[in-house]
Design a protein that fits this description.
Blueprint (H helix, E strand, L loop, with lengths): L1 H10 L1 H4 L1 H23 L4 H26 L5 H29 L1
Helix pairs in contact: 1-3, 3-4, 4-5
Length: about 100
């Protein structure tokens, strides 16, 4: 997903603006990095903290994508597709964090 977001953002830099493109790319990359970091920490409170960061980054990316679609800076269909993917990743991170929490008990 992070690669796709970067491709779309860079292809639409004129309509999105470079600051928004940078924020979208950073948020998408942050999702991946925090999932990896959380997974690497194992079944621990610290690992759960990184999954929370990943969810927050997914929320941030979703907000940027929704706004870009509403402002017609991205084609609505493309923005909707990317929002759906972002929400799915956020949901999967949430469910994985729940399973980690259950194993901690």
């Amino acid at each position: 997903m992070a690669v796709r977001v970067e491709e779309v953002a860079k292809a639409n830099v004129r309509s999105l603006g470079s600051a928004t493109v940078d924020q979208m790319i950073r948020a998408a990359d942050s999702i991946v990095a925090n999932i990896a970091e959380g997974y690497g920490r194992g079944v621990s409170r610290d690992g759960l903290r990184f999954f929370t960061f990943a969810r927050s980054s997914a929320d941030e990316l979703e907000a940027h994508l929704r706004l870009a679609g509403m402002k017609r800076r991205l084609p609505q269909e493309l923005a909707t597709d990317l929002v759906g993917n972002t929400r799915r990743v956020g949901f999967l991170v949430f469910r994985y964090a729940e399973s980690v929490e259950r194993r901690r008990k």
